[in-house]
Amino acid sequence: MRRVALVTLVVDDYDEAIRFYTEALGFRLAEDAPRPDGSRWVVVEPGPECQHAVPAGTGLLLARAKGEAQRSRVGDQTGGRVGFFLHTDDFARDHARMTAAGVAFLEEPRHEPYGTVAVFQDLYGNRWDLLQPAG
């Protein structure tokens, strides 16, 4: 096994999720294909137009919630913990771009021994770190 290829992120709506991840975070839409059951196979990932792209990184499978159990998890997939980590090679640039795009940062950027970091929320409330690793 070489890498984790996809992580499922449960969302309310495919199109609003695609807009957020591509427009606000700068991901690229890698796949959007209809499925026989009426759902869609939607994958977004850091791409060439994403300045914080990491080669062979992990994509997000945006999965529309089915049923009450899944709907109750939208925006709280990790129980309020930071569950996703977005690395950048230029924190100031990406923080400014994301802020201008309306991304909700929950704190001011801080410098830690491991790098520069700030927690933000996606459109559903999931917590992410924007992180420029030290060194």
Describe the protein's topology.
Layout: E1 6-11, H1 14-24, E2 28-34, E3 40-45, E4 59-64, H2 67-71, E5 82-87, H3 91-100, E6 104-105, E7 110-112, E8 115-121, E9 127-133
Parallel strand pairs: 1-4, 5-9
Antiparallel strand pairs: 2-3, 3-4, 6-8, 7-8, 8-9
User: Largest sheet, if any?
Assistant: 5 strands, mixed
Tell me how many strands there are.
9
Query: Which percent range fits the helix content?
Result: 10-25%
What class would the helix/strand composition place it in?
alpha+beta
Order of helices and strands: EHEEEHEHEEEE
Radius of gyration: 15 Å
Shape: globular
Overall mean pLDDT stands at 92
Distance between the termini: 28 Å
Tally of alpha and pi helices: 3
Poorly predicted runs are 50-55
- Strand residues, percent: 35-45%
Structural summary, described in words:
With about 140 residues, this protein is an alpha+beta fold. It has three helices and nine strands; from the N terminus they run βαβββαβαββββ. The chain has helices at about 15-25, 65-70, 90-100; strands at about 5-10, 30-35, 40-45, 60-65, 80-85, 105, 110, 115-120, 125-135. Strands 5, 6, 7, 8 and 9 form a five-stranded mixed beta sheet that branches. β2 (about 30-35) and β3 (about 40-45) form a beta hairpin. The protein is globular and about 45 Å long. It starts with 5 loop residues before the first strand and ends with a strand. The model is unreliable at about 50-55 (pLDDT under 50).
